[in-house]
Amino acid sequence: MRTLAVVGTGLIGTSIGLAMSRRGITVHLVDRDTSAARTAAALGAGVTADPTGPVDLAVIAVPPRAVADVLAEQHARGLARSYTDVASVKALPTRQADAGLPDPSCYVGGHPMAGREQSGPLAARADLFDGRAWVLTPSPRTAQTALNHVLELVALCGAVPLVMDSEVHDQAVALTSHAPHVVASLMAARLQHGPPEALRLVGQGLRDATRIAGGDPRLWADILRSNAAPVARVLRELADDLAELLTALEDVARDDASQDPGTGAVVDLLERGAEGLHAVRPARVRRSGPTLRVTLGETPGELARLLDTVTDHGVGTEDVTTRVDPVQDRMTAEFTVPPVTAGQLRRRLGEQGWQVEGAAVRPTRRPLPQPSHVDDLWDQEVLPSQRVASLPGVS
Amino acid sequence: MRTLAVVGTGLIGTSIGLAMSRRGITVHLVDRDTSAARTAAALGAGVTADPTGPVDLAVIAVPPRAVADVLAEQHARGLARSYTDVASVKALPTRQADAGLPDPSCYVGGHPMAGREQSGPLAARADLFDGRAWVLTPSPRTAQTALNHVLELVALCGAVPLVMDSEVHDQAVALTSHAPHVVASLMAARLQHGPPEALRLVGQGLRDATRIAGGDPRLWADILRSNAAPVARVLRELADDLAELLTALEDVARDDASQDPGTGAVVDLLERGAEGLHAVRPARVRRSGPTLRVTLGETPGELARLLDTVTDHGVGTEDVTTRVDPVQDRMTAEFTVPPVTAGQLRRRLGEQGWQVEGAAVRPTRRPLPQPSHVDDLWDQEVLPSQRVASLPGVS
């Protein structure tokens, strides 16, 4: 690819322009707001001059419901040989392209999973897509040339391509992005009606839970309406859960909390929530290594000193368990140690006078590394899919 | 205060023990789980031996619905002269203390706004309450001695006392903590039912929005049921908003998204959400300083170089606006500059060849500081209440 056009020089379009210009591609910037295109050009994202002939690929970087019209218009004008978009819904533009373009084989839907809280060209960054997933939704009729142009775009932007059916993509983002946005907005909307004292009790938990509600309301209304059926399906089920919980809480409130109604429904929802979270937690590192057991004396603060020593060797406090032996009335602390520091830690604990039991440590042939960061000390087993899953999504 | 008892040596109780022991107070640790009390003692949070007479203050650090029974039991035993608790609901324990204690004047409800995602004594930290708000809910019948004991506890833990009516506290936390927990759980529970592809599209937005759903389901069920009426009130209003949004989205879905129904309801909710967010945003720093305007030439990337220079002088990219003069066809960039670097920045831009216009900069008498952190450069006007409001809340 030698030439690219970006239609719509907001955050995403301008970031693509910056990334591609850096790779030596000639980027033509188009926006109905001349000032936005000029700003993108002044940042180094490309030129505002029209191309002299069709470019290799045009990226339509406009809101979801505007994609079809802009695509048809630029296609009619002969702007490019291949086309893609960056909207966060894919079935609607794909359907509209199939119906509206004389030759839909030149279009491949795309959705880079990257974004920032600020919008507009001034917020753009050349490295916005570095290591991020970039969904592509080719159909059986997509031309190979078009697919390859888009794959090259994704590669040059430093992203990881992820081919997906457009309907499956829309169901997935309804769950992972669109419904969460609605839920954050529903909660944030309540904050307009609280007692003034409530503001002094606001914490990071609430801020995190509502942060995504800060997105541009018009853009998000466009996204939600473009993916209405999948989003409504998720929210309908959520509303059913909420209705059940409300019945339980209102029962409790009526009984003046002296009885115990509603426990089942409340615990059930909270447990399902905690389980659902496991699906989206960053890759859990599998920790395997020798287990050590230390017997503690009666000196106050002895356990704190032990924790200081073991955490210096890559053990997290959440990996430590304590137990009191009822017969001997002695306390023991047990923990799994990263293999590379186990020998060192065992010696250190011995030097400090603790009685240590536990699996014999295999001698290592490599010299022991100096611990720098806890996670470096463990055998991390992270699946590639989990790595992708831990990428921040588009907002 | 010389002596303290902590009943319940979990995260909060043990952290209080650590903080108070460090201040030279004798702390007696009580827990029905001997191993938890022994663990807290081994960390240096106090001693497991019973006090020889009544201590000055006992902190009942057990789940909300257990407070009344434990308080009555310890009071009957004569454990302390004054009592407080740390539960995240206040009306229920206050009502129960009034009804159940022979002398309720010795009890002051308390709620430190601090927590961690881990629980149990091993997660405890002496500095857990540093700078955090700690709500106290004395009633007209509270004895001055009891109030002063609790104020001393809060001060020695490094927290900021905040006196509040117990009912107002419960309405406030229903809105800022309990309802958000339910909403996060409702969303997280949906994640059990997504297409497998969805997991690859999970981003930081979803993780932040659902993070608090990771709390202990049994403890949280206890909290929600103890504050059922205020939580139900918030959630009922939220459910009404959700029902309206669902109707709009289902209308859009039925019309196959070709028409434009539902825009009003969808935009309305999103706008109310964005407005509600302003209430909980960390204190917005009021930025006042001279405004500078720079005229740009035609060189690509010129704006990027300008941004590099101005951001080095404490200007954020969100504070920059660009404009194209339609008559002269020239682009200008305008931004407000922190007063202390304005003169320096103006000279620097001049040296780099830019044409700068804007308010004359008053000469400073102090030598210009070297910028270290952007926020240090501004006249920050943060109200004390906003500072408290930006503290992480309990979870």
TrEMBL record, chains A, B:
Keywords: Oxidoreductase. Residues 2-277 form the Prephenate/arogenate dehydrogenase domain. Pfam families: PDH_C (PF20463), PDH_N (PF02153). The keyword Oxidoreductase applies. InterPro entries: 6-PGluconate_DH-like_C_sf (IPR008927), NAD(P)-bd_dom_sf (IPR036291), PDH_C (IPR046825), PDH_N (IPR046826), Preph/Arog_dehydrog (IPR050812), Prephen_DH (IPR003099). Belongs to the prephenate/arogenate dehydrogenase family. This is Prephenate dehydrogenase.
